[in-house]
Protein 1
Amino acid sequence: MMRPASVRSFAVFLFGALALTAGSASAADVVYEQPVTAPSPEAPSSPIYVWSGPYAGAFVGYNFARFEDAGTASFDGDGLVGGVYVGYNFETPAIVYGIEADVGGSAVDGSAFSPSLGGDVDGEQNVFGSLRGRVGVKADPFLVFATGGLAASRNELSLGGSSDSQTSVGYTVGAGIEAKFDDDLTGRLEYRYSKFGNETYDLGNTSVSSGFDEHSIRAGIALKF
């Protein structure tokens, strides 16, 4: 038969063992979760500018011209110009190249007194156009380009009550910068120099041979298809 002291000692031992077992079970039930790391934001990708393909646009500008040897009188003219242009671009990773044509109307005019003809010779440019190659270096969203090719200009000379119109053929060269506003819309600033050969104008009782050249500053806007 167990003594009361032994019973108390056994009870203390049993209680301690149960408490230790319960604590171990509770610790085993604890789930340690790894902290969730928020994904780092992705760096915004650079926009891709596509220059290749067909396009069409319109331009306005101002021309500074010179009528050469018009009845021994050479004189300056100037005026507003405007027109349309179409083209097609090809591109490599760094270069854009293609072909472009334009046609426009002109308000360029000027006049000078010709001693040999005994009167004022008036000169006007009416319409003009060109067919050119174009090549540029990409600096997205910009394109720095050069252009050059064939050009034609319809000019008119007048003396007294007589006038005559002729079409002069020559060349045009220039350079400019173009910018993409979005995938389909571009704007440009351009400088062009054009020089045309001499043509003979029948002014009543006399014939006058005259050449023509011009400097043009233009701004244009175009849609890419």
Protein 2
Amino acid sequence: MTRETIIEKLRNKYANLGLGDDVLGSIADLILTGNPTDETIDGVVDGVGGSLKSIQSSLDKARQKPTDEKKKPEEKKETEEKKDSTLEEKFEKLLGTVQQLVTKTAIDDKKGNLVKALSAKNIPEKYYNKFLTTVDYGEGYSEDDTVKHMETEFEDFKQAFATEGAKGGNPPIGTGGTEQKGQALKDIERLA
């Protein structure tokens, strides 16, 4: 997935907002940090729509002229600087929100694909659910390696259980366990 492809998708989807390539390019760069695939890009593009509309709204407000023309030139400069800093703060906040959304979407997609792959390998959900929270879906993530690792661990678990079984402690008193013979009689004599 290239930056230009994402910009083109954003431009086609949100042409009515009138945003420039610089804003769309920034959003495309954020989307690329989540490593979107051809299957997930449409969902990600739909997901950033609210953020793009907020950016467009903020830009429109910043473009509007103040209604009070009687302000002194110095006051106008201060107001403009405040607006610029406020706009920058809003833009940075929106970019942070978009980044979080892109990251969460990417992690959810990777997690869903991992669950499908584990189910296809007939690994029970009860077994792999405890591992899903420990998987690092960051840069070094490889679905194939993770599936192989979990499959190997599950096979080792099955083999160990088949070989050793569910070993427990000593049988309860009075059940006829080898070390427990006569223990019930001793307990009765002690109580009498």
